[in-house]
Design a protein that fits this description.
With about 425 residues, the chain is α/β, with parallel strands linked by helices. It has helices at about 25-35, 45-60, 75-85, 95-100, 120-130, 140-145, 185-195, 215-225, 255-265, 280-285, 315-320, 405-410, and strands at about 15, 20, 25, 40, 65-70, 90, 110, 130-135, 150-155, 200-205, 235, 275, 285-300, 300-305, 325, 335-340, 350-355, 365-370, 390-395, 395-400. The structure holds pyridoxal-5'-phosphate.
Length: about 425
């Protein structure tokens, strides 16, 4: 049975009146109070998933750290919640670092990534006392050496030559990837860093991509690292897929770590420290986007058009990611319609051929599993005001990022 409720955060349910409830709050009430579109985050589900990662990793490898890939939801409140559950974070540049610092993440637990780190990225990271910089190219070594005065820990990002099954835009471990260093260059970087008196080479990093629904390639990437000899630290990246649709069957965190840590036991030194960087799989299911239906147009196709779209969810048009949806107070079932947005492109589709029960103007429609990369890539296309983030927990709701106003659209004008 395709039960749409299963795609929402754990504990979500339809109440006696048929209203969908997330984090103890009726989605229709949230829409009335905070407006639409809005990103709703079940804070309890978010924290529980962070703890699941932390505990499942610790159970398998003593000296280990889970860090949140902040790009998946670069929101200060999300980073703070995850840090309070004992995770560090990674940042891809100075902008994400701003959120990590504002969230109070311990700088020693912040990892800086980027295939094209600017001088400013590096300077701000050094000033903030970022614990580890991940070297992605030989220019990173030059730049960093010129800037650090105290010792700076670094990892070298290796290209493992592993191509998992996922969208090409989010595959990063294949031989021709723009991320990381191919084996010969990785060895060159390792040699240079071993001779550096300011950069301390702690170990290696690998990340093969995102929305990966088969655990086997993660093990292959770990195996590739063994060819470089033994190191003190291995950062094994993120990439585990999330469940967006009825058909998606991503491995559980435990199943994924069985493969990943199993490979580490086989190929890496037992005294090493292991780091993992989950993003999407940590936050996707905790997030729900709520919209209001603006018009229902029946013709060659039935279009249910809402007050958001590709301004708040680019996953569909960038990667063809499928999402499911439901009317908030008539959950599941119904006629197949195209749920579309309000932006001036035919590609502005939130869900093609999705079953909605008796959709009407004014209904609240909820799209589950929008916690990853939707807030990240929100934009102001067609003058859309970027939506708020509302945390819900045990029946309470609070805004952690406010909705943009029309004034905000003019704020940067000079
Ligand atoms: C270096 C690095 N680590 C971790 C992640 C997180 O990946 P995901 O969100 O798929 O878990 C990414 C995202 O692509 C990344 O580039």
């Amino acid at each position: 049975m395709n039960d749409v409720v299963d795609l929402f955060p754990p504990g979500a349910h339809a109440d006696d009146g048929g209203d969908l409830v997330v984090g103890g709050c009726r989605l229709r009430d949230l829409a009335a109070e905070f407006g639409t579109p809005a990103y709703v985050v079940d804070e309890g589900a978010l924290r529980a998933r962070a703890r699941e990662y932390r505990d499942e990793l610790a159970a398998r490898w003593g000296d280990s750290l889970a860090i949140f890939a902040s790009k998946a939801f670069p929101c200060t409140a999300v980073l703070r919640a995850v840090a309070e559950e004992g995770l560090g974070c990674d940042v891809a540049g100075a902008g994400e670092l701003v959120h990590a610092v504002a969230a109070g993440v311990d700088p020693a637990r912040i990892y800086l990534h980027g295939n094209a780190k600017t001088d400013e990225d590096l300077e701000r990271a050094i000033d903030a006392g970022v614990g580890t910089v991940v070297i992605d190219n030989l220019d990173d070594v030059d730049r960093l050496e010129r800037r650090v005065s105290d010792e700076q820990a670094v990892l070298v990002r290796d290209i493992p030559g592993v191509r998992p099954e996922t969208h090409a835009a989010v595959a990063t471990g294949q031989e021709d990837s723009k991320f990381g260093l191919a084996p010969a260059d990785a060895r060159r970087a390792i040699e240079r860093l071993r001779g550096s008196d300011r950069l301390r080479l702690d170990g290696l990093h690998v990340h093969i991509g995102s929305q990966i629904l088969d655990a086997a390639p993660f093990g292959q990437a770990v195996q590739a690292l063994a060819a470089y000899g033994e190191f003190a630290v291995y950062d094994l990246g993120g990439g585990l897929g999330a469940r967006y649709t009825y058909d998606d069957r991503p491995p559980s965190v435990a199943e994924y770590l069985d493969v990943l840590i199993g490979a580490a036991r086989e190929h890496l030194p037992s005294a090493a420290r292991l780091v993992i960087e989950p993003g999407r799989s940590l936050v996707a299911r905790a997030g729900v986007t709520i919209y209001r239906v603006v018009t229902v147009k029946r013709g060659a196709r039935t279009f249910v058009a809402v007050d958001g779209g590709m301004g708040d969810n680019l996953e569909v048009s960038l990667y063809g990611q499928r999402f499911e949806a439901t009317v908030a107070d008539r959950v599941g079932g119904g006629e197949k319609v195209d749920l579309v947005g309000r932006h001036c492109e035919s590609g502005d589709v939130l869900s093609a051929g999705v079953a909605l029960r008796e959709p009407r103007v004014g209904d609240v429609v909820a799209v589950p599993a929008t916690g990853a990369y939707c807030f990240t890539m929100r934009n102001t296309y067609n003058g859309a005001r970027r939506p708020p983030v509302v945390f819900v927990r045990d029946g309470d709701a609070r805004v952690v990022v406010r909705r943009e106003g029309y004034d905000d659209l003019l704020r940067l004008d000079v």
